[in-house]
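Input:
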Amino acid sequence: MGSIKDVFHRMGSPRFFYHGSSLWVRGLYIGGTLGLIIGSFWGLALAPPDKYQGDSFRIMYIHVPSAHLAEMVYFACAVAGFVYVVWRMKMADVFIAAAAPVGAILTLLSLASGILWGMPTWGTGWVWDMRTTSVLVLLFLFFGLIALRQAIPRLDRAAYSVAILALVGVVNIPIIKYSVEWFTTLHQPASITFTNEPTIETSMLWPLLFNTTGLYIFIAGVILAAMRVEVLKREQATEWVRDITRSMQR
Amino acid sequence: MSDFYTWAAMGGHGLYVWSVYGISIVALVVLGAWPLRAEKKLLVRATERTDLEGGS
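Output:
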């Protein structure tokens, strides 16, 4: 029990995080890129065309992972918000500051790919159904996290307000997830669930798994790298950052 | 060669499919490169500050 508390405390130290994360960033970048290259090649060149959608279904290999990950990034921000509100852990706020812009770009990517997928398959790029609208709300929530932080000059007050917004906004995640079941929509229900066999053909499933895993790993690397930037910004006057710069001068 | 063009045309959906992959590559490259560049910049600036303090 003591060791868990010890790890928790050490993870809360910006200095420990900065020194320990350098190799992780490189490894996650390389692993994620490899997964994305394999998944994209498989999805574009080897997977058979869909019976109804033809080759336009290959947009799924970008749309589904980016949409899923955008939701997960927001959920992680909410967990970090909870940790900040309860324990005032600085690194939890660093995580939200680093992850919010990444989540916004992922949401934009999922919306853009959805529009470009909708054009050939639905005959329209945008419908105001619950899934699309709730993902648009997710984008505004990410923008809100970024804007709120910039609007409040005092770091601790900004961190607290952003954490509360992250917690409140998490109600949107189950709405996105279940929107295809609760409301009438053009979106199809989930093809992969934890409880049932996937309804997607195996030859089409594998590239999706590679791309999803690759994107998860790559984005983990990006968020870690962005957290390192945030830590440096906040700690630049401290002795341990000065030690790093002194070692760079030698 | 015609096989390649047939594949690239994506059954008439090439514009949509390749646009999505193009946008994604740009987004991921920007996402990946931005924090690395920002970290480098911050460290260079901090080193310059340490230099100034050392010199004064």
